[in-house]
Structures are given as C-alpha cells and as structure tokens.
Design goal:
Endo/exonu/phosph_ase_sf; 7 strands; Endonuclease/exonuclease/phosphatase domain-containing protein; globular; Deoxyribonuclease I, Chain A; two-stranded antiparallel ribbon; Endo/exonuclease/phosphatase; catalytic activity
Amino acid sequence: MGGETQDEWGRLLSEWLATLNCVVYNDGMKPTFLKGRYQSWIDVTFSTENAARWVRNWTVEEEETLSDHQFITFQLKLDGERTGNGQSSGRCCGWNTKGFSPSVIRHSFVERMNAKQNKDCVSMVGAIKEACDMHLPKKGDYIILIKLYKNFICH
C-alpha cells in the first residue's frame, strides 16, 4: 500500500483485505500522512472487487489540508450513468436492511465466532459478513471507504 516497510498492523490489514477480496486504490506513490520529516501511507481506500468498476482517478492531493493527512480524492461512476457503450453502470450499496432483526444477526454472528478456531480480526469480519449474507438480501455491491490509523487495535 506504500512505503518501504510493512509493520504488523500493515500485514494484518493486508491479510484482512485479501480475505475480503478487496481492491486497494492506494498506489504507494505519495504518502497520505505527512508530519515534519515523517511520512506514512496510513490512510487506505478500498472496496469490493465488483464496486471497483465505479471508482476512477484515485489521487493523493498535494494542496494544504491544515492537517497531517493529505486529501484523497476519487470519482465514482454512479448508478444510472452511462458507460462508453451506452449501457448502465449498475447499482451499488450492500445489504438491504429494511425490516431486519438485529438480534437474529447478532445470534448468527456469535454462533459463527464460536465455531471459529481463530478469534482474530479477519475471523470477526468473516463472521459478520457470513451472518449478513445469510439473513439479509443483497442490494448490490458496496464501497468501503475508511481511514485506518496506526492506533487502531484489532483483537
């Protein structure tokens, strides 16, 4: 995702994203965090493989942000926009949560976690996804945009 070295946090994040079959947009060319002489690629932008078809022109901007973090910009080809061949680009956005039961999802998640040998972050995310896939209808693909910082602790 950038930089010359990868610490334990970066390794865990890479494994988690690979487990979810995510596409990472960071190209490693420009750091996303600058503080004095220190630079890092700590801000990560990613999505599902299917949602990746909507993401264009991901860039770390160079303008002043009044923060240690650089602006990250990208374009989304939204639902109903036409592709070059005149076809609709499709839809976006996760599970349909209308009328869902949080207690059913919670129970399913706990059952899945109890069945897993490893109780790490990757297992937890997998259990959440499995519970949602089992009990919620899919709406389409989803895009996850998240800033992950070094002090993020995943148990």
